[in-house]
Amino acid sequence: MDDERVAELTGLPLADARHAKTRAFSEPGLWHGTDTTRAAFVAELAQHGIAAREGGRFLTLSFGQTKADRMAEIIASCRPRVTMALGDAPNDVEMLEAADYGVIVANPHRPPLPPLETESAGRILRTALPGPEGWNRAVLDLINQLNI
Fold it and tell me: For the segment 41-51, what is each residue's pLDDT rounded down to a tens digit?
């Protein structure tokens, strides 16, 4: 996709869309086929070691690593007192569940994630506000709650 198409699909300003295209570990794209052909496509990719995960707007391909895997590496390196993960799509679920606190950020572009296992225990919360505003409010509320 060119920068203009990324900006159109994401609502990002053109300069941010250009920056968003700089990827190191995954490649997003749009699926235009049927659910049946998508399942076959995903299965074929898996045979070559490529994982396909549903993101906030795109089908994201990577070589098997998840956001939870990357978070685990950062935790092992930095050893934080508390971990917090924020996300809005199926490809965020493992990361949200692995953190001390997970936040599902409202996303008006897709149906909300179904209830997660640790949500009833209060480890995973949901924002009412979408996008950056929801992210910001959740981070500030947790900092306040934990008296950090």
Answer: 999 999 999 98
